[in-house]
Amino acid sequence: MKKIRLGRTDLMVTKTSFGALPIQRVDFDYAKLLLRKAYEGGMNYFDTARMYSDSEEKIGYSLADVRDKIIISTKTHAKDPKGIEDHLHTSLTNMKTDHIDIYQLHLAKQVYRPGEEDGLYDAMVKAKEQGKIGYIGLTAHSVDVALGAARSGLYDTVQFPLNHLSSPKDLSLIEEAKKNDVGIIAMKGLSGGLITNASLSFAFLRQFDNVVPIWGIQWEHELDEFLELEKNPPELDEKMKAAIQKDQEELSGEFCRSCGYCLPCPADIDIPQAARMMFLLRRMPWQVYITPEWKAKMEKIRDCINCGACKSRCPYGLNTPELLKKNLEDYEQFYAEHAHLVEK
Ligand code: SF4
Ligand code: SF4
């Protein structure tokens, strides 16, 4: 399997790597089946986070015996040095290891620096000096934070959502990171399920030799698809470029990436699904969403109390309440026009 050097870390990671967020939704044995198959299929890099419930434990359960042959990154969302120390201890225990190759500050709202009052960056340095972590990374959904981290000289890796739908500013991170020899870990390669043709994103991200996509994998058929793409990488030819352009036209502008950072919602609205319902109806088999259950879920949007919490948390700056209302309006119209076509 093709490997790339992940910026100045000198870690040689497989160009096709494993994002372990979705394995928190399957049981331990199924997670092991996936992780072992990925490893045996050649993948050597696995990314997880303290925030992903039992994902770290599943990595420990499945890959502890090959720990010295793989590269592991995890993340801490702690807000103070003691929290980082505790998270790191838990992560090491969960993954049955004495060190994390890349330890990342999760969903950073700013570029944390040495000597600051919060003490987060200093705590990372301390962990590195203790040999508990190899390299310091940061993950962000804000491109300004990601660019700032790449330019700062403080971070070995930056993790950021990237795919062929990314804006030119988002994509400028790749060049900026290259100039500073920072490795880019690309999350959301399929944009939270909106990109239905994985080969497009795969071919697009393959052009960049300092970017490693970590594909979120929950099911064996998804893993098989990425292993197959790695064996026979699609070329970014004219046909592929035309398909990418079509995706960009359909999905351009402001859209919900389904990241879930706006949750919880006091009105219990399933924002990550409801805010992109019209995309889902257009791009997935729409019959799945024309059901009484989905109708009831969408109608919950009317319970919105306009607290603004979702809007203030959305890293993409979306006006989430407005987006929800628009989706409800369009969904109800679509429902009225299509419900009679769904087999009972
Ligand atoms: S503004 Fe509405 S949708 Fe957003 S968190 Fe508040 S209640 Fe939920
Ligand atoms: S509204 Fe924003 S924060 Fe919420 S899921 Fe969508 S992109 Fe993420």
Q: Tell me about the largest β-sheet.
A: 8 strands, parallel, barrel
Q: Ions, cofactors, ligands: which are bound?
A: iron/sulfur cluster
The strand line-up of the biggest sheet is 3-4-5-6-7-8-9-10
Q: CATH H level of the largest domain: which superfamily? A: NADP-dependent oxidoreductase domain
Helix content: 40-55%
- Could you say which structural class the secondary elements and strand pairing correspond to? alpha/beta
Strand content: 5-15%
CATH class of the largest domain: Alpha Beta
Radius of gyration: 20 Å
CATH topology of the largest domain: TIM Barrel
Please outline the helices and strands.
Elements (H helix, E strand, L loop, with lengths): L2 E3 L6 E3 L2 E3 L8 H13 L4 E3 L7 H9 L7 E6 L4 H14 L5 E6 L14 H10 L3 E7 L3 H10 L4 E5 L6 H12 L3 E5 L10 H9 L4 E6 L3 H12 L6 H13 L20 H4 L2 H7 L8 H8 L9 H5 L6 H19 L6
Parallel strand pairs: 3-4, 3-10, 4-5, 5-6, 6-7, 7-8, 8-9, 9-10
Antiparallel strand pairs: 1-2
Helix pairs in contact: 1-2, 3-4, 5-6, 7-9
Bound molecules: iron/sulfur cluster (2 copies).
Supply the key terms:
344 residues, binds iron/sulfur cluster, alpha/beta, eight-stranded parallel barrel
Structure notes:
Strand 7, helix 5 (143-152) and strand 8 (157-161) form a beta-alpha-beta unit. The mean pLDDT is 94. Helix 3 crosses helix 4 (120-129) and helix 5 runs parallel beside helix 6 (168-179). The chain has helices at residues 28-40, 55-63, 81-94, 120-129, 143-152, 168-179, 198-206, 220-231, 238-250, 271-274, 277-283, 292-299, 309-313, 320-338; strands spanning 3-5, 12-14, 17-19, 45-47, 71-76, 100-105, 133-139, 157-161, 183-187, 211-216. By secondary structure, it is an alpha/beta fold. Helix content is 42%, strand content 14%. It has an 8-stranded parallel barrel with strand order 3-4-5-6-7-8-9-10, surrounded by 5 helices. It has a two-stranded antiparallel sheet with strand order 1-2. It has 2 domains: 3-247, TIM Barrel (Alpha-Beta Barrel); 271-339, no CATH class. The longest helix is centred in the C-terminal third of the chain and has 19 residues, at 320-338. The chain has 14 helices and 10 strands. It binds iron/sulfur cluster (2 copies). One iron/sulfur cluster is lined by residues 265-267, 269, 271, 304-310, 320-321, 324.
